[in-house]
Structure formats: C-alpha cells, structure tokens
Design goal:
Strand order of the largest sheet: 1-2
Protein name: Mechanosensitive ion channel protein MscS
Organism: Cellulosimicrobium composti
Order of helices and strands: EEHH
Distance between the termini: 9 Å
Number of strands: 2
Amino acid sequence: MVERRRGRVVIRSARTGRPSTRDRVLDADDVVRIDARIPAYLAEHLYDAAYESGRPVTAVLVDLLASAIGREDEAAMG
C-alpha cells in the first residue's frame, strides 16, 4: 500500500448539483464524500472489480480515479 500524502489541500468550489459555496481547505488525509450517479454498466465493472479483488468499492474507486488523473502515488486509502 502506498503511503498517504501529508499536508493541506484546497478543494475548489465546483458544480455538484447544489449551488457552489466556497473553496475548502482540508488536511490531505481528510475524507470527502462524493455522491455520483453513474451508468449501470460502469457500476457493474466497478463492483465486479471490487468483488474480484476482495476490496471495498470505495477503495477500488479511489484507485481508478487516481489512475485516471495520473496520481497513483496518492491512491492509498485506509
């Protein structure tokens, strides 16, 4: 498992289906909840990968998102 990133991060205000409020400054290890509606065929692949690896869906999702943005080194999630 990769070591977690330390320090502070800024999560910029963005459209999430609710009115934008403000930027948030968090510790790098803080957890941010994201509610996303995705097509069922993608959910199927996500849940299959979690089942096959024996890992939680959220951990698999973190790895996939980190890989997609080129930040695999920060993907570790406890």
